[in-house]
Amino acid sequence: MAMVSTVFINPFSQEAKELVKASGDLDRIMEEDARLLNIIEYTRGQRLDDDSRIPGSLWEFAIKRIEWYLEKKGYQRYQPGYYRFLFNPQIAEFDVITFYVLAQAIGAKFNPNSRESRIFMESEAEIVKERLLRIESRERERVISKILREMLDSETPHWTQLEKLLENRRIKLTELILKDGEVILDKSATGRTQQVINAIREKIIPALIVQETQEYLYKVHEMAAKIEPHPILTRLAEKIRERISREFFIPKKTGARTIKASKLDFDAFPPCIKNTIKGVRAGNRNDAIVLLLTGFLSYARLYPSVFKDRKPHKVSDFDPTLNITLNEILPMIYEAADNCEPPLFQDDPQEKLNITAKLGFGLHETPSLENEGETKWYTPMSCEKIKIHLPVVCKPDSLCEKIQNPLTYYNRKRWQKKRKNEGGDKDIPRGNTRR
Ligand code: SF4
Fold first, then answer.
1. What are the pLDDT digits (tens) for 337-350?
2. pLDDT tens column, 304-325
3. Which atom number of ligand 1 is nearest to the Cα of residue 271?
4. Please, where in the chain does CATH 1.20.930.50 lie?
5. Å from CA of 303 to ligand 1 middle
6. What's the predicted TM-score (pTM) here?
7. From ligand 1's centre to the CA of 359, what distance in Å?
8. Nearest residue to 341 via CA among 283, 274, 273
9. Residue located nearest, by CA, to atom 6 of ligand 1
10. Residue 293 near ligand 1, beta carbon < 6 Å
11. Which long-range contacts (CB under 8 A, 24 or more apart) does 297-301 make?
């Protein structure tokens, strides 16, 4: 097997950076590249029966790189035959330029904690892992040694050099083998110890690359606040956002067993939520409104089946213009805040920012699309936590015995009501009783 360039695995090597510096200008990334097409065409196992699945330009390559990851994680539609080119070492030069184009587009347009940034980083980790796996084992060891020296200056770095990886939990200290403060990542051990070291060597490479990618995204993001990004990067970021949103968009299914988003049904709220809406006294006020009610109302209105699907969605997947959030959900939360004693925002206006943050829009007065992703959209508190932190609002009724989260109560109650109206009382969907 031919020697694999580390550029193929490590976009942060000196060689990779020089390659990128010498590459053409951004205006040309949409142009078809015969060399790229030629490599893809001659990649072993590559499916060529559908032109739309073959990237002819760096722009299309960038989108395919993300698409590969989304499809791989989505399982059903994943057809690896269309993505063989990603694992052909001859593509290294195009690949590394694409990596930087993507990182700059995503870094400039999205917050480094946004879903788009996270997916980009995860996709990079996955690409690196899979590429390493596909290299023949002796060659793999050579590539890993070289990358460790490129990124850590040595194969036995001092453990403090891995501080960021440990801090971000990309790797655990207990996984590492240490000697006099140095992490042993070379090939000097024998037997079982070397096997353990080999496993760490393979794991640490994607972790190091993702760590660097994250830092790079932060830098680009800071820079973009001062200098307007190239319009082609803005367009690419928009395309990536659309592609990712499509993956997370839930098609409206019909049929009795799907819990759909619909107008809020006050009557189906559990006792804890009804009590919170009536108003809570100082002491419990902040937690009840910010932690309990905000999560409950937003998910109940927009994504009631969150515990069943377990997909990390954001509010705009269900409410793309934020019309429902701003005109239905927030007014209810603010009204409940007003019912508190004393009214919550009167002596704690900061809590408005915390409510926005719990909806996933960072610490801002009101939610807006450009800030989405700065924080996570928090799911409603579990009954267990409510009983500990907010016992004053938890007044369980008989339905509460069977559930562990107020949102599950809400879904069940709505089903019961629906069944009753239809003349039956059975057939409550099991999938939604888990939480
Ligand atoms: S048991 Fe759960 S759903 Fe019922 S009132 Fe208490 S916290 Fe709310």
1. 988 988 899 878 89
2. 988 887 677 899 989 988 989 9
3. 5
4. 6-151+190-248
5. 19
6. 0.67
7. 22
8. 283
9. 394
10. no
11. 297/264, 297/273, 297/329, 297/332, 297/333, 298/325, 298/329, 298/359, 298/377, 299/379, 299/380, 299/407, 300/264, 300/269, 300/380, 300/407, 300/410, 301/261, 301/263, 301/264, 301/328, 301/329
Task: Report the alpha-carbon distance of residue 335 to residue 277 in Å, rounded.
Answer: 8
The DSSP string of 338-400 is HHSBS-HHHH-THHHHHHHHHBTS-SSSS--GGGTTSS-BPPPPPHHHHHHH-TTT----GGG
Residue type, 48: L
Q: 158 - beta bridge partners?
A: 182
CA of 254 to the centre of ligand 1 (A): 30
Give the 3-state secondary structure of residue 169: coil
Contact 394, 271 (CB under 8 A): yes
CATH code of 6-151+190-248, in short, is: 1.20.930.50
d(CA 207, CA 311): 23
Tell me how far the alpha carbon of residue 233 lies from the centroid of ligand 1, in angstroms: 48
Return the best residue to mutate from 293, 296, 386 for the ligand 1 pocket (most ligand atoms within 8 A of CB): 386
| pLDDT tens sequence across 220-252 | 999 998 999 999 999 999 999 888 877 765 444
- Residue type at 340 in one-letter notation: C
- Cα–Cα distance between 355 and 348 in angstroms, integer? 12
Q: Is the dihedral of CA 340, 307, 113, 206 positive or negative?
A: positive
SS3 182: strand
Task: Give, for ligand 1, the residue of 383, 388, 397, 401 to mutate: max count of ligand atoms closer than 8 Å to Cβ.
Answer: 383
E strand or H helix at 121: helix 115-134
Is 409 touching ligand 1 by the criterion CB < 6 Å? yes
| 241 Cα to the center of ligand 1, angstroms | 37
Q: Is 386 in the pocket of ligand 1 (CB under 6 A)?
A: yes
